[in-house]
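TA notes. Do not distribute before section.
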Amino acid sequence: MTRRRRVSWPGIAQHLIQRGNNRQICFADEHDMLMFGQWLCDYSSEHGVAIHAWVFMSNHVHILATPREHNSIALMMQALGRRYVRYFNSRHRRTGTLWEGRYRSCLVDSDEYLLQCQRYIELNPVRAAMVSAPDQYRWSSYRTHAHGKVSTLTTPHSLYLGLGNTPIERQAAYRALFCEQLPAPLVEDISKTTLSGLALANDKFRQQIQQLTGQSVTPGKPGRPPRQRRTAQPDDNHRLL
């Protein structure tokens, strides 16, 4: 099956997922996460990518980012992946691949889905039952958005900045968004859309993306296309019983 070509457009946010090979760990300890975060900060700056939200789990990462150029995110992830694999293999005395193929990504309709996708990312440790609240997990952008923790990696999205006129107002409004869990259908939709390389968006947004890029980001109909039936021959009768 031909794999779907990634769709990227300057100024449109993307949700990224990078998994460890066969769901094995890609972070053995906090030092690994620290190094990955530092290089993500370096390469995002170098290639013109604004990182809005992120979480580092033991065997995968989630990133919400907006590229400045068409290939900004691809260049960032390529440089980051190679640098980190060399470090990880050397430090932990291993060889071979670390990542489960290429990273997955989807475009995000900012007006309708961006803050929901951001909540999805920062609630990952809660859904994994690692913590009972997102502020208990160190390796995500939640503390920056909810409590004002200084971060050189995180660039708040304009929709986050619009939650209030002051940092205190924005942080309080953001915390209020986490009083309830995301609906299960939305969680599933975000995951499937990202893994499929489509767009987390309404039909109007998808149509606009197709007009811009010439590539569809709309889910196809489930199942295989119907096959043309062959006319049965006398010797085939036993197969039709």
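Switch to the second chain here.
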Amino acid sequence: MHLLAPGRVLARATAVLVLALGMAAGTTGLLSGTEAHALPAAEGSLTFSGDEGDYISGGRSYAYSTASQDSLDITSSGDDNAVRLWVNGANGDWWSLDLAAPSGTKLVPGTYTGATRHPFNGPAEPGLDLSGNGRGCNQLTGEFTISAIEFGPQGYVRKLDASFVQHCEGGPAAARGEVHIENPAPPAELDLGLAVALEGTASTLNGKATVHGTVSCNKPVQVALAGDVTQVKRQKLIRGSYSASVSCVPGAPVAWTATAAPTGDVPFQRGDVEVAARATATDPDYAQPVTAAETVAVHLRRG
């Protein structure tokens, strides 16, 4: 499954396209597991150097760190099988590093030998890929050691200390490096609550049904509400959809109200209806949608 990198400037996007077109094996930088959102590292560094003849490093040494105003973004796969680091150097350099355990296992401290290019490594092979600045390996071999790693929810990486050795295209020359990431404790995930009131109104003027309820949250979010109202009267099915949007802040529940217009020529009437409700908001810390749903019986009175 693809993981989406943070936004890049046009020059970088062009360079990524050139790299992708120049590599016969296809797109680089995929992570297995659930798609997650990359977050900037609070503190971190990536350093590596290469032997003469190593294609990726060009035989040079590189060093990037948050202390030097370089940008380091990191995420993990949803199953904690892999991590990916993006580096945007203050000097315009850009690199990515993938480290992955064999599929179906979690990335834990230890040494992973026999690594091949991620995400095309076999089910029993660890995955590795250092690429960037317009250079990447079609095939590679190598190994890496995880000294420390701590995961959080939704792809959050609390800590990573690792070293790696990568040989490009089966050659003897290698790139060798280290990565260190330190982040604060992960933020809580968005907890979204939804309630539907057990009474509503059926308008005698326009035949619409008005329903209401509350939403609750543990962090400020904009909540989108949507749903359907269904009623059966005299063997006729009456149905309509509704939508609304409210700003939710932690603390007391926030009220919402929405109106559903019948889709046919039969109006909503006094009596019982089924109300299906969905509340959706995007977690501001993890950029992931969170949904709460309720289906309840509501009594409509004339309004």
